[in-house]
Write a structure and sequence with these properties.
By secondary structure, the chain is an alpha+beta fold. It has helices spanning 27-32, 45-59, 66-84, 127-135, 162-170, and strands at residues 33-38, 88-94, 98-105, 138-144, 147-155. It has five helices and five strands. Helix 2 packs antiparallel against helix 3 and helix 3 (66-84) runs antiparallel to helix 4.
């Protein structure tokens, strides 16, 4: 752009302006990223979150992951509704090697699982994150605007190696 100016400025500094317009994600990308909102007082919110996760996993052909993903989503969404006392947003994303489920609420306090010394009958909460920690391939939480995001990842099942399938069918 600068090279095509008829009169070059005397300054050594060059400046350029780039304008872009985002026209949205492709249809394929939209399949791999979905969002679901739950109102803070929705008594069926956790059940609806499990159904959302299950339906999304089926839509991206990962139904075998549904049981684990629904359990973990249920634990994290319940924590957000009970302790965050706010509306909750769920974001699901599919990557080649894993799926990631994020749950956002308005509570700014980051969470930690209850340690083994406190995980007894007198502890009122925190066991859900122990389950998340045990089952997820990765998890964490981070500040997010006025609140936080708790996320977890599950590895996607590996497709069978075609050489292995061919050799086993020959035997």
């Amino acid at each position: 752009m600068i090279d095509h100016l008829t009169e070059r400025p005397a300054r050594a500094d060059d400046a350029a302006l780039l304008l872009m317009r985002f026209e949205g994600a492709s249809a394929e990308a939209q399949l791999h990223v979905q969002r679901f909102a739950i109102h803070r007082r929705d008594l069926q919110g956790v059940r609806r979150a499990r159904r959302f996760v299950r339906d999304w996993l089926c839509s991206v052909e990962l139904a075998p992951m549904s049981e684990a993903a629904e359990l973990l989503a249920s634990e994290v969404v319940t924590n957000a509704l009970v302790h965050g006392d706010s509306d909750v947003d769920i974001h699901v994303r599919r990557y080649p090697e894993h799926v990631r489920i994020e749950v956002r609420d308005s509570d700014p306090h980051l969470v930690l699982p209850v340690g083994p010394a406190l995980a007894n009958d007198e502890a009122e909460g925190g066991r859900g994150l122990i389950i998340v920690s045990a089952m997820a391939s990765a998890w964490g939480n981070s500040p997010s605007g006025r609140g936080k995001t708790i996320w977890f990842e599950l590895q996607t099942p590996k497709a069978p190696d075609m050489a292995t399938v061919s050799n086993s069918s020959i035997s």
